[in-house]
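Question (not urgent): is this output format expected?
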Amino acid sequence: MEEIWASIVAEAGATASRRIGNRYERSAANEIVSIAQDVSPATVIATVLAMVLMWHDRPLRFRTDDALGVQIARRVRALSSRHVGLRYDHRTGQQVRIYREMTPKAAAILGRKLMTAFGAIGLRLADLDARDSKAATEAKQRLATAISQLQ
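Got this back:
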């Protein structure tokens, strides 16, 4: 999975360095490059897989697949501190953190790339988790049945 992430970062680096092309693609590529500079690949992968597991467990939390992709992009982007800035608040006399948002189209592109790369793996993990929990439930049921038959 880390090799997949490395190929995504390499492709994003090539896209970000081009001067001609879709601006939303370049924006998403710049986000990927900045995330890769700040965050370890394992953290990015774990975040995407966790979001896919959440979607599998509670599919109604996300209205559409694109909404899931945007939320994945936002969660992965939040791992990095490069989109955070400071501004001075004259009323309080302190600096306040501000968060720069991605455009919705760039977020959708970034989410789509991450879902394409890690979505199937996340769904497979969800299936394995469901299988393990079903086996644990069956084992508890067999134990309860055996205890009730002893009495």
